[in-house]
Amino acid sequence: MRQHQLDFAEGFRVACTVREGQAAVMTIAPGDREGGPDNRHRGADQWLYVVEGEGTAIVEDNEVSLRAGTLLVIEHGERHEIRNDGDAPLRTLNFYYPPAFDRDGDPVGPGKG
Question: What is the pLDDT at residue 2?
Answer without folding.
Answer: 75
